[in-house]
Design a protein that fits this description.
Keywords: Receptor. This protein has about 110 residues and is mainly β.
Length: about 110
């Protein structure tokens, strides 16, 4: 199993960057985002644009996904008379969803008891 860890990255200098906000594209389909904040001891704004495209690998393929069905405390998958099946990326897939990715959702009615 591949370890899931965070890495530290030094942007411009040795000062601590205080982050006040993070901006993403609506719909979250981009590997780019913007951080804004300031370095410790200064009152000047800092804007950092980050592109994670190379770090995320290649576009995902069908075998990078698996079905996921929400369940209740008793592991019942029929919630309010329906079973909803979502497609989600497997935890260790080193890929990204492209701009045209449309997450499929399937609904199935549960048998009546």
């Amino acid at each position: 199993m591949k370890a899931r860890t965070w890495l530290t990255y030094k942007f411009l200098n040795n000062s601590r960057l205080y982050v006040y906000g993070l901006l993403t594209e609506p719909g979250e389909q981009s590997a780019e985002f913007t951080i804004y904040g300031s370095y410790s001891g200064t009152h000047k704004w800092v804007v950092v644009q980050i592109n994670l495209r190379k770090a995320l690998g290649n576009p995902c393929h069908d075998d990078d996904y698996k079905p996921w069905i929400p369940s209740d405390e008793q592991n019942g998958t029929c919630l309010l008379g329906r079973k909803t099946i979502y497609e989600r990326r497997i935890a260790h897939a080193h890929c990204y969803n492209g701009y045209d990715y449309d997450r499929p959702i399937t609904h199935e009615n549960c048998p009546m008891r």
